[in-house]
């Protein structure tokens, strides 16, 4: 058994610091040729750079976002009001964490069924097509008692309680980062509400008490970058994703029958619609297929904030979006049920919402599902 994928308690362990220099890669990380990256560098997707300095109600902003969301579900925002130093700090903290010894990272080891914690390429969760990445995910929400949207305390507590006092500064950086992400998400929800003709407050109110997931993606270099994937083809099951790529390209979107890359813009955040918002929009807006490729030279990092509604809020489109020519595309469901489905029963891919709908209908008689979260 290769040292890099030694088994501990029957669990294959991915030690990126050793694997990333190896000329060969373990079989579990090889993806089928119809899913692996094409050798030619993907052409770029023309994703509009939306300037938010004009405010969420700006007609040009509303038009551009609506157009992009109906087409491929991706756009980028600039002049978003988030301090570039905070973003730089978030990347520096990510580097500091993922370059620590594996045993230290495993203090935050994700437990089966949980949506949070440290995962090294999901060994132990999936048997094949393992993604070439390490991730650290944590919840970002405002305890009801705290009122308002003070995501900061729960994020700070997560780092100090899970990783120790040495990680207080990480907790402070990500606490501020997540609060800023929540604020930006609500502003984008105003734009989406206007573009769908339901007004600026409908979706903003729906996500006011959001219970979101912050994920740090770390993609070590790989000596066979065309045989594996950092993150496999999927649509985000969540509602809205606000993602910051560092200066290393790798995010690709499937549009018009081919994979197109989104060039990193340090001052921009990439925003995409997820499955849950596709259901909220009664399928007016598309949750788009995307993936992340890796390279043989340098690590790639991305900060992904996944906006999610409160666990038990009913996901149902506003009545304005349902009529004879637009019947209900999906049944009512709670985010808790969809999250539980992706954590315990189904590996999120490009058909998650369809598979979930069938699963719901099949298990409508079973008791309500519950999910353990960190
Ligand atoms: C709710 C979630 C599940 C995943 C993280 C968030 C939103 C994106 C999902 C994911 C990235 C889609 C591709 C497969 C996945 C297993 C991964 O590669 O990380 C998904 C995440 C997950 O299930 O942990
Ligand atoms: O790392 C990236 O650029 C994309 C990651 C992604 O799609 C995800 O984490 O859902
Ligand atoms: Fe994604």
From TrEMBL:
Residues 209-309 form the Fe2OG dioxygenase domain. GO terms for molecular function: metal ion binding; oxidoreductase activity. Its cofactor is L-ascorbate. The keyword Metal-binding applies. The keyword Ribosomal protein does not apply. It catalyses: gibberellin A12 + 2 2-oxoglutarate + 3 O2 + H(+) = gibberellin A9 + 2 succinate + 3 CO2 + 2 H2O; gibberellin A53 + 2 2-oxoglutarate + 3 O2 + H(+) = gibberellin A20 + 2 succinate + 3 CO2 + 2 H2O. One of its GO terms (biological process) is gibberellin metabolic process. Keywords: Iron, Metal-binding, Oxidoreductase. Pfam families: 2OG-FeII_Oxy (PF03171), DIOX_N (PF14226). Belongs to the iron/ascorbate-dependent oxidoreductase family. This is Fe2OG dioxygenase domain-containing protein. It comes from Digitaria exilis.
């Amino acid at each position: 058994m290769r040292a890099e994928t030694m088994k501990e308690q029957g669990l294959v362990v991915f030690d990126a610091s050793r694997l990333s220099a190896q000329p060969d890669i373990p079989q579990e990380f090889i993806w089928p040729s119809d899913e692996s990256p094409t050798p030619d560098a993907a052409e770029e997707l023309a994703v509009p750079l939306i300037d938010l300095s004009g405010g969420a109600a700006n007609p040009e902003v509303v038009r551009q976002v609506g157009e992009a969301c109906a087409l491929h579900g991706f756009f980028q925002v600039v002049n978003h009001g988030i301090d570039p130093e905070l973003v730089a700090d978030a990347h520096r903290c990510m580097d500091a964490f993922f370059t620590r010894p594996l045993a230290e990272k495993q203090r935050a080891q994700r437990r089966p069924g949980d949506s949070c914690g440290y995962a090294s390429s999901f060994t132990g969760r999936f048997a094949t097509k393992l993604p070439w990445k390490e991730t650290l995910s944590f919840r970002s929400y405002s305890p009801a008692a705290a009122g308002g949207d003070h995501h900061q305390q729960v994020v700070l507590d997560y780092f100090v309680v899970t990783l120790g006092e040495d990680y207080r500064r990480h907790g402070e950086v990500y606490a501020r980062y997540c609060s800023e992400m929540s604020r930006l998400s609500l502003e984008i929800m105003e734009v989406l509400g206007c573009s769908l003709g339901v007004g600026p407050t409908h979706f903003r109110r729906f996500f006011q008490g959001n219970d979101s997931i912050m994920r740090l993606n770390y993609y070590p270099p790989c000596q066979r970058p065309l045989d594996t994937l950092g993150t496999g083809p999927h649509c985000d099951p969540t509602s809205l994703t606000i993602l910051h790529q560092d200066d290393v390209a790798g995010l690709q979107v499937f549009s018009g029958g081919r994979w197109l890359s989104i060039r990193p813009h340090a001052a921009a955040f990439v925003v995409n619609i997820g499955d849950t918002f596709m259901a909220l929009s009664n399928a007016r807006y598309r949750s788009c297929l995307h993936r992340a490729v890796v390279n043989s030279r340098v690590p790639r990092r991305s900060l992904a904030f996944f906006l999610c509604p409160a666990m038990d809020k009913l996901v149902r489109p506003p009545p304005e979006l349902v009529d004879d020519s637009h019947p209900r595309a999906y049944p009512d469901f709670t985010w808790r049920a969809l999250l539980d489905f992706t954590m315990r029963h189904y590996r999120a891919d490009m058909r998650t919402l369809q598979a979930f709908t069938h699963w719901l209908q099949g298990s409508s008689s079973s008791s309500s599902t519950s999910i353990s979260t960190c």
